[in-house]
Design goal:
The N terminus is likely disordered. This protein is an alpha+beta fold. Strands 1, 2, 3, 4, 5, 6 and 7 form a 7-stranded antiparallel β-sheet that branches. The chain is flat, with a radius of gyration of 34 Å. 47% of the residues lie in helices and 14% in strands.
Length: 296
């Protein structure tokens, strides 16, 4: 800052001289600015400062990667600052390995089990995957023991069940649409879109290029809600041509102020691949309120 001020003062002086009538022109001399001399910090200060700056990163690592709870941070600090013998270090590493095994067991029970059941049967609460058998096989594989199946055979078994479930689910969704088309008040368009009018609005209808504002809730045929603006407590706005085909078709038929129910076949939904939270071949059931047909 001092260097900048010195340069500024010198420039102001030169400008004032040049503007004086009859001033004699003199060659300008470069302004000499003193250079600050850098001094090193002490190794002690540097080391402590580095520890301060690394603390947040270490805390995040041990809590997120290591699964350490906040109340157990004193044990982390104790281990960090202790001077262990090789024997003590070996014991601590063994304890850490057991703790990691417990962590994996918890993940298997609380997260993997419902996920695998849902993928294999369509029901996260199903009693299909036997956790004891799964853990026994996992233990054999990790221990290098002889296993009943090699990896290729295991993959074949898993794929067979997944394909069976996918085909079963596809048939369930087709049957749902067949029965729903016969229900009172439902209409079916040539694309297969099914809709039922709950409230018919009187406002304008959106076009392909319109941006609409809606409230909605989306469900699967088993009743699972996968998305809901009602639950978020906030309506959603988006361009008509930016959503799945089933939504596009329905929106362009809905006058502003309408509330409809939709049953969207997978062909004009998320298809054979599905998306996050929505399995392949899913029929999408929506309640949709068109609040505004043209959002500016």
């Amino acid at each position: 800052m001092k260097k900048i001020l010195i340069l500024a003062a010198a420039l102001v002086g030169l400008t004032a001289t040049a503007q004086q009538p009859g001033a004699q022109k003199r060659p300008l001399k470069p302004v000499q600015v003193p250079v600050h001399k850098m001094a090193p910090v002490s190794a002690k200060d540097f080391s402590y400062a580095m520890g301060v700056l690394q603390a947040d990163g270490v805390r995040q690592f041990v809590t997120q990667q290591g699964g350490v709870k906040a109340e157990n941070m004193p044990q982390v600090v104790e281990a960090l600052t202790a001077n262990y013998t090789p024997e003590e270090t070996a014991r601590i590493e063994a304890d850490a390995a057991r703790a990691m095994g417990l962590r994996v067991a918890e993940i298997n029970k609380t997260r993997l089990l419902p996920q695998m059941n849902e993928q294999a049967t369509g029901d996260a609460e199903a009693k299909y995957l036997d956790l004891d058998i799964y853990n026994a096989a996992l233990a054999d594989a990790l221990s290098g023991k002889k296993m009943a199946y090699d990896a290729d055979s295991a993959m074949h078994i898993i794929n067979q069940q997944m394909e069976y479930q996918k085909e079963t689910y596809r048939k369930q969704n087709e049957d749902y649409l067949t029965n729903n088309a016969k229900a009172e008040g439902w209409k079916t368009t040539p694309s297969g879109l099914q809709y039922r009018v709950l409230t018919q609005g009187t406002g304008p209808m959106p076009a392909d290029t319109s941006k609409v504002e809606v409230n909605y809730e989306g469900r699967l045929i088993n009743g699972k809600v996968f998305d809901s603006s009602y639950k978020r407590g906030q309506s959603a706005s988006f361009p008509v041509n930016g959503v799945i085909k089933g939504w596009q078709e329905a929106l362009k038929m809905m006058p502003e102020g309408s509330k409809w129910e939709l049953a969207i076949p997978q062909e004009i939904g998320y298809g054979e691949r599905g998306t996050q939270g929505i399995p392949a071949y899913s029929t999408l059931l929506f309640t949709v309120e068109l609040l505004k047909a043209n959002v500016k």
